[in-house]
Write a structure and sequence with these properties.
The structure is a homotrimer. Chain A is an all-alpha fold. Chain A contains six helices and no strands. The model of chain A has no long low-confidence stretch (mean pLDDT 96).
C-alpha cells in the first residue's frame, strides 16, 4: 500500500471524497428510476424498451417530466461542486494541513452536500438549498486558500 | 520522475484513466462536428460564423438537432461516470490492490465505457446501453469498497 | 507537508489547477446572479423565494433566459475541459516532465480557458471562443502524450 494511506489526513480525504462521490454516483440510478416510474424518456430506444409498441405510443413516452429534470439538476449541481472539492481536496490533503482542521472541512462539506440533495429532492423551501450550496462552496474556497498558502509556482 | 510511476498498479491506473478521459474529451469535437454538419447552433455568434447572413437565416441555424442532443447526452453521461472513476481509481490505485485485480477493474471499466458510447451513438437497441452503463458503475462501486476497506478516517 | 509540495513541477500543477478550478467554481454564483437579476428560475421554490406571490406570478418567474443559458453553457464547457485537464495534469506532473515545459503547458491552458470564458460571456465573435477552446484541448492532448510516453501498463 502507498505510504499516503498511512497519513491520517490523506485517509480522511480518501474517506470523505469517496462518500461524496458515492452520493453523486447514486444520482444516476435515481434518474433512471424516475424515468421508468414516470415513463419519461429522451432516447427512442429507451421508449421502445419500456412499453412503446408503435410510433404513437413511443411519442407519448418521449417527454420531459418535471421531477426527472429536478433530479438531473441536482446531479449537475453535484458535478459542478463535488468534483472541484475532490480535486482541490487532494492538493489540500497533500499540503500538510492540521488534521482536525482538515477533517472539519471534509465533514462540513459532506454534510452540506447531503443536505443540499435532500433540499433539492424533497424539495424544501428556499433558502435551504441555497444555503447548503453556499456552505459547500465556502469549504472549497477555504481549501483553495490553504493550497495556495502552502506554496505557489506561477 | 515520481516514484509513483515505478508502481505497476499506478502505471495501469495512469494508462486506463488517460484512455477513458481521452475518449470523453473526443465527445467535444464530435459535438462540434455534428453542429456544423447538421447546421444546428445554440449561440448566435456560431450561427453568424456558419452561414447566417441576416436575422432570418440566423434564426433557421439556431435550432436543436436530435442527433446533436444525443451526442451531448453521451458526453454528459461520460462526465457523470468517467470522472468519478478517475477520482476513486486514484485512491484505489494508492490503496495497495493486487495488480491483476486492479488491472481487471480498469480493463472492464474502459471496455464498458467504449461500448456505452457505441451503444449511445449508433444507437443500439436497449438494454445494450443500460447494461454497459451498469457494468461501469459496478466497477466503480467495487473500487469504492476497496478504498474504504483499505482504511477509513471519519 | 507531503514531499510532493517540494517538487516545483507539482507546485506549478497545484497552482494552475487551483486557478482554473476557481474560475470554474465562480460560474455557479454567476449563474445565480443572472437568475436573480433576470428573474429567470427553473425550480418553483426559487420563484417563491424571489417575488412570486401566487401561481400566476410564479409561472412568470419560471422561464428560460438566453443569457442565463449562455452562462450555463460556459460552465458546462468548463466541466468538459477543465476537469480532464486537472486529472491528466496530475499524472503529467508526476510523470517527470521538464519544469519549463510543464509550466508552459499550464500557463497556456489557464490563459486559454480564461479567454474562452470572456469570449463566451461578452460574447466575442467567432472564432475567438472556438480557437481558445481548441488551444486548451491541444494542451490537454499534449499532456496525454507526455503521460503515455512516460509509461504504459495495459
Amino acid at each position: 500500500m502507498s505510504e499516503m494511506f498511512s497519513s491520517e489526513v490523506f485517509l480522511a480525504y480518501s474517506t470523505y471524497s469517496t462518500i461524496v462521490l458515492l452520493k453523486m454516483l447514486l444520482m444516476g440510478p435515481l434518474t433512471g428510476y424516475f424515468r421508468v416510474k414516470r415513463k419519461a424518456f429522451v432516447s427512442a430506444e429507451d421508449a421502445w424498451a419500456h412499453g412503446a409498441t408503435d410510433e404513437e405510443s413511443k411519442k407519448q413516452l418521449m417527454r420531459t417530466d418535471p421531477y426527472v429534470e429536478r433530479v438531473r439538476r441536482c446531479h449537475r449541481n453535484d458535478l459542478e461542486n463535488i468534483i472541484p472539492f475532490v480535486s482541490i481536496g487532494l492538493l489540500y490533503a497533500l499540503s500538510g494541513p492540521d488534521l482536525s482542521t482538515a477533517v472539519m472541512h471534509f465533514r462540513i462539506f459532506a454534510a452540506s452536500r447531503i443536505f443540499h440533495s435532500i433540499a433539492y429532492l424533497v424539495p424544501l423551501p428556499q433558502p435551504s438549498r441555497g444555503l447548503s450550496w453556499m456552505v459547500g462552496l465556502g469549504v472549497t474556497f477555504s481549501m483553495v486558500y490553504g493550497v495556495l498558502k502552502a506554496g505557489v509556482h506561477l
